[in-house]
Write a sequence for this structure.
């Protein structure tokens, strides 16, 4: 009650949003009852900075993969090195991993063989992989998904993936540079299901250029036919460095009223279909000053998403553009550290970035071990 009062009084948050936040907290604690005791463990984010093409709204480290074989090879070499060194440190210091998340870019942009070697490295380098609560691989771009790659995921026991339609209008997909069709999204979704992927997330974006309530409702009714385990509803944000922001005049987006109406549709649709909100975040320059909300069917929440949002444990970022958050378990103080975004700098300096992270980890966990023994 005190928190609710403070949110209302000091942050001017409406009752409806406070209720949403409370629902999210309740959901998170159901999914991760020991959320507040996981400061002694870590989660790992692995950034693979390649995509088939670059989407117009994107500012992630994502480089068109075509014709980059040499650079991809050197990048993967650095990535394997980081996994080995970080894994060694975790093993030696008896620190367990709660979750692993392969993001980027699109981690399924690399070949099936490269994926196979990468997951093999994960099992070889990271401690106790069998007991990691969740491993997710973003397969966001349907045009990267093949039967062969799905078989590799299954081989390594990875069954949580993300396939992101963003929209179910071919014209929109073309306008934002995604180079895949609605039909391909649906086809790859079924292919993934048949290959044994049992926890699929799908992302939608409210407010894509040329889209209004009608198009968004179509996206929701298409989602109804698929019923993924989780659905993340983003609101378009104009990030400074994106193609879309640089050429804003070319992209016509809905007004605030319509954006709010679409968000309301998402809220009622998810409720009617048994999804619950379980994480939320906001970004700068987001349309309608709204938020991004992750929904899931009960029991299908992504633990990694909860860990990254709640900032209760250290997230070690490996690979290109991967951001690490070192969370001091005693004080909650957070130190950020980022790997370089472009593959060239990463390939030249990955050893330096690995050493820096190991230095942070040693300081943090040693300090914590000392204070733990003092308390005893
Ligand atoms: S698929 Fe994702 S990471 Fe790749 S360019 Fe598009 S938005 Fe960026």
């Amino acid at each position: 009650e005190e928190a609710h009062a403070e949110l209302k009084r000091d942050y001017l948050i409406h009752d409806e949003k406070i209720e949403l936040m409370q629902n999210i907290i309740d959901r998170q604690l159901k999914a991760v009852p020991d959320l507040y005791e996981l400061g002694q463990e870590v989660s790992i984010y692995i950034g693979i900075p390649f995509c088939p093409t670059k989407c117009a709204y994107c500012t992630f480290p994502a480089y068109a993969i075509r014709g980059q074989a040499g650079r991809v090879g050197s990048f993967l070499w650095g990535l394997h090195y980081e996994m080995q060194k970080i894994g060694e440190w975790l093993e030696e210091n008896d620190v367990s991993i709660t979750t692993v998340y392969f993001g980027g870019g699109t981690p399924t942009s690399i070949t099936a063989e490269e994926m196979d070697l990468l997951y093999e490295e994960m099992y070889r380098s990271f401690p106790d992989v069998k007991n990691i609560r969740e491993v997710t691989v973003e397969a966001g771009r349907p045009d990267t998904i093949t039967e062969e790659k799905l078989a590799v995921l299954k081989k390594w026991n990875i069954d949580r993936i993300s396939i992101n339609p963003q929209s179910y209008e071919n014209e929109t997909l073309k306008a934002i540079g995604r180079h895949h069709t609605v039909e391909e999204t649906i086809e790859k979704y079924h292919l993934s299901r048949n290959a044994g992927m049992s926890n699929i997330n799908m992302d939608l974006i409210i407010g894509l250029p040329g889209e209004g309530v009608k198009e968004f409702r179509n996206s929701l009714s298409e989602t109804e036919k698929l019923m993924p385990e989780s659905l993340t509803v983003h609101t378009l944000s104009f990030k400074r460095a994106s193609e879309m922001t640089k050429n804003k005049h070319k992209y016509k987006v809905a007004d605030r009223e319509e954006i709010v109406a679409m968000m309301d549709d998402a809220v009622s649709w998810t409720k009617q279909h048994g999804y619950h909100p379980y994480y939320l975040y906001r970004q700068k320059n987001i349309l309608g000053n709204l938020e991004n909300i992750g929904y899931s069917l009960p029991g299908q929440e992504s633990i990694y998403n909860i860990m990254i949002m709640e900032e209760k444990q250290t997230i070690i970022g490996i690979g290109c553009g991967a951001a690490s958050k070192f969370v001091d378990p005693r004080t909650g103080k957070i130190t950020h550290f980022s790997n370089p975004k472009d593959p060239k700098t990463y390939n030249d300096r990955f050893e330096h970035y690995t050493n820096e992270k190991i230095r942070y980890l040693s300081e943090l966990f040693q300090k914590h071990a000392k204070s733990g023994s003092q308390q005893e």
Remarks:
- The chain has a mean pLDDT of 93.
- Residues 41-133+311-376 form one domain.
- Residues 51, 54-55, 58, 60, 62, 104-106, 140-141 surround iron/sulfur cluster (CB under 6 Å).
